[in-house]
Design a protein that fits this description.
A hairpin with a 7-residue loop joins strand 1 and strand 2 (18-25). The chain has helices at 32-38, 53-60; strands at residues 3-10, 18-25, 70-74. The protein has 76 residues and is α+β, with helices and mostly antiparallel strands.
């Protein structure tokens, strides 16, 4: 992984629980296990390649400004 942008979002069923949406920048195709391992062996519900960058950016950032965390990380 070269860079990661993530935004947390409150769960619909439980406002106190959060999940994250991430955009991962890499030059290689990554398997489910590689994604999980690269993120510290966390639970990954779903992952897929981005084919429409504008649509996915709108979806991922829709809760910015609504008491959520977000960050961009670059590999140095």
């Amino acid at each position: 992984m070269e860079k990661v942008f993530f935004v947390t979002e409150r769960d619909k069923g439980d406002y106190n629980n959060l999940h994250a949406h991430m955009l991962i920048g890499t030059n290689t195709d990554m398997t489910y296990r590689e994604v999980r391992y690269g993120l510290g062996n966390i639970s990954v519900g779903d992952y897929q390649p981005v084919y429409d960058s504008e649509a996915v950016c709108k979806y991922v950032t829709k809760h910015i400004g609504k008491d959520v965390d977000y960050e961009i990380i670059f590999k140095s």
